[in-house]
């Protein structure tokens, strides 16, 4: 386990993009789906609109998961709010809107659930996105954190300038460096950013890396783990968090169903 004495306030399992692959991703319906499957923590993606409103969306462009077209971050919130973010998944979800971060915070604070908030900047807005997302999260969660009702969201990103801006804007919020490759200097960068964790593609993780990172006082989370055998191996090694799409087969709901 990590040498740091700081408590780790997050559950082991995180539902990817709110509800895994069982609901339209990054919507409030997805979060409710994750909760119905027993999850008490979620991963999601946040960027900012042209008029600085933090909202949930994974892609830079709108076509894959909404009725819109073009670069999402180029539009004001009033235009984004009018889009359909559910019909792509299935007709039963037609009319599902893109949620603002404030609405997701409301769900998490009402349920007491935790959040891994991936900062996903529109290219060219890295620092601005990191700053605005961190400040918004700080404002939205401050009261609940002070009252002991919720942990801070874990701010993560592949984008180092976004994390640097988040660190400068809200240094008390926990940060994690996201990695899809072990690029040169990544561990030193995580240290410079004051990261409490790293979040890696699960294929990059072995027992030795876990021991090393724990020795540095950092937790290790992995994405996207959808097979039970791999999850069991990672858990045996001492992994601190698993992000999954397979919310029906893995995680707290599956454990309860098999008990």
Secondary structural class: alpha/beta
Give the rounded overall mean pLDDT.
96
Strand order of the largest sheet: 1-9-8-7-6-5-4-2-3
Main sheet: strands, sense, barrel: 9 strands, mixed
Task: Specify the number of helices.
Answer: 9
Secondary-structure element order, as H and E? EHEEHHEHEHEHEHEHEH
Rg calc: 17 Å
**Cα separation of the termini:** 27 Å
Give the CA-based shape.
globular
Q: Spans of 5+ residues with little confidence (pLDDT < 50)?
A: none
- The helix content, as a percent range, equals 25-40%
Beta percentage is 15-25%
How many beta-strand runs?
9
Structure in words:
The chain is of the alpha/beta class. The chain is 34% helix and 17% strand. Helix 3 (101-111) runs parallel beside helix 4 (126-146) and helix 4 (126-146) crosses helix 5 (160-169).
Question: What are the key terms here?
Answer:
nine-stranded mixed sheet, alpha/beta, 17% strand, globular, 259 residues, single chain
In a few lines, what is going on in this structure?
With 259 residues, the protein is α/β, with parallel strands linked by helices. It is 34% helix and 17% strand.
